[in-house]
């Protein structure tokens, strides 16, 4: 009985804490060196606070998906691309951090299943759910002091939702006189240009189209993150280390191709972000 009474009293004590105590906690110095990461979810709250105070006031919200991508490539294809892309992009900008990747996006109706939802492993959310998540994430970031919320997507179907939310938040914050702006950076989704760059500048061609929702540029970029997500070893062992008639061997060469393609995308996207922010 005594323990129960104490347990019920603790929440009341917490609620009754005076303002200066809470403020002191928020201003408490970080007791150890910070981790060298641009991912908010990998940082402590103190590290995020200090990064914002040091000028990292751009937050990148990237959207991927979980969907079918042929017999070799993991369903999280877009998310694996974004793991490398957002990291590189934030470091290229120098004043940005990455929010956790939004991995669940609209992929088709659930009942009855349509589009990608016809394939096992696909996870879909309604358009309004997707936009609500993007909006709440953006609001959360702005509440903590990020002044530029940047939405990028690796899947074409995500563009409408990101654009809608960015426009809504920017209009609302502008009307309220808040120092925060949301941007949808469509330049990141530039796979047509990536393919042209790969073929014309780097000399890698795809002679055929196997229709597998997969291709050499996607595979090579994913291999930068982790070769296992394109089943590299299994494909080599089975004599199937090709996509669209192009070889994905040797491993190191294709990973280097992926790095070059990633850098191409990062250069284009960073320039678009700087233009949108005005700095």
Report on this structure.
This protein is α/β, with parallel strands linked by helices. The protein has one domain: Rossmann fold (3-Layer(aba) Sandwich). Helices cover 49% and strands 8% of the residues. It is built from 10 helices and 6 strands. The protein has helices at residues 2-15, 19-26, 45-53, 77-93, 127-143, 159-175, 191-200, 216-225, 232-238, 251-277, and strands spanning 58-63, 96-98, 148-153, 181-184, 242-243, 246-247. The strands form 2 sheets. It has a 4-stranded parallel sheet with strand order 2-1-3-4, sandwiched between helices. α8 (216-225) crosses α10 (251-277). The protein starts with a helix and ends with a helix. Mean pLDDT is 94; it is low at 1-17.
Write the layout of secondary structure elements.
Layout: H1 2-15, H2 19-26, H3 45-53, E1 58-63, H4 77-93, E2 96-98, H5 127-143, E3 148-153, H6 159-175, E4 181-184, H7 191-200, H8 216-225, H9 232-238, E5 242-243, E6 246-247, H10 251-277
Helix pairs in contact: 4-8, 4-10, 5-6, 8-10
Helix share bin = 40-55%
Largest sheet geometry? 4 strands, parallel
How many helix segments? 10
CATH H-tier superfamily: Creatininase
Name the CATH architecture: 3-Layer(aba) Sandwich
Structural class assignment: alpha/beta
**Cross-sheet strand order for the largest sheet:** 2-1-3-4
Strand proportion:
5-15%
Number of strands: 6
Indicate the mean pLDDT.
94
**CATH class category label:** Alpha Beta
Shape label: globular
Number of domains: 1
Distance between the termini: 62 Å
* Series of H and E elements: HHHEHEHEHEHHHEEH
Detail the poorly predicted runs: 1-17
CATH topology: Rossmann fold
What radius of gyration results from the CA coordinates?
22 Å
């Amino acid at each position: 009985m005594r323990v129960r009474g104490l347990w019920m009293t603790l929440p009341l004590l917490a609620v009754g804490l005076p303002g200066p105590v809470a403020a002191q906690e928020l201003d408490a110095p970080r007791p150890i060196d910070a981790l060298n990461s641009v991912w908010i979810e990998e940082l402590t709250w103190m590290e995020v606070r200090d990064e914002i105070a040091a000028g990292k006031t751009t937050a990148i919200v990237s959207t991927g998906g979980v969907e079918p991508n042929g017999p070799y490539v993991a369903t999280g294809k877009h998310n694996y691309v974004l793991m490398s892309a957002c990291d590189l992009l934030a470091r290229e900008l120098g004043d940005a951090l990455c929010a956790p990747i939004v991995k669940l996006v609209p992929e088709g109706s659930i009942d009855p299943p349509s589009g990608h939802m016809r394939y096992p492993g696909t996870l879909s959310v309604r358009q309004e759910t997707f936009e609500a998540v993007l909006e709440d994430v953006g609001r959360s970031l702005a509440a903590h002091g990020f002044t530029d919320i940047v939405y990028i997507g690796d899947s074409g179907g995500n563009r409408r939702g990101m654009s809608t939310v960015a426009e809504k938040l920017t209009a609302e914050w502008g009307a309220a006189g808040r120092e925060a702006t949301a941007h949808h950076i469509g330049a990141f989704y530039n796979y047509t240009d990536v393919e042209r760059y790969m073929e014309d500048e780097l000399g890698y061609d795809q002679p055929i189209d196997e229709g597998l929702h997969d291709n050499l540029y996607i595979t090579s970029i994913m291999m930068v993150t982790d070769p296992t997500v394109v089943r590299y070893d299994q494909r080599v062992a089975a004599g199937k280390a090709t996509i669209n008639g192009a070889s994905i061997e040797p491993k190191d060469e294709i990973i280097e191709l992926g790095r070059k393609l990633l850098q191409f995308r990062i250069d284009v996207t960073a320039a678009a972000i700087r233009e949108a922010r005005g700095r």
